[in-house]
Amino acid sequence: MVKLRLRENESIQEAVKRFRKIVEHAGIKKEMRRREYYEKPSDENRRNRRRAERRARLSRLQSNQ
Question: What residues have CB less than 8 Å from 15, skipping those under 6 apart?
């Protein structure tokens, strides 16, 4: 949970900017996007496997150079 207390003489725009930064840093935004739609476990595993293969391929290419 993110808590934000207004500082003395802080404008609303500054507080909103600080709030967005805190939410982004906490990973809440990313988690919300991930949970927006249900993803079958098999689809999630497939996506994770493809991401790992892509990372491995890129690391092999970079190590060969």
Answer: 4, 6, 7
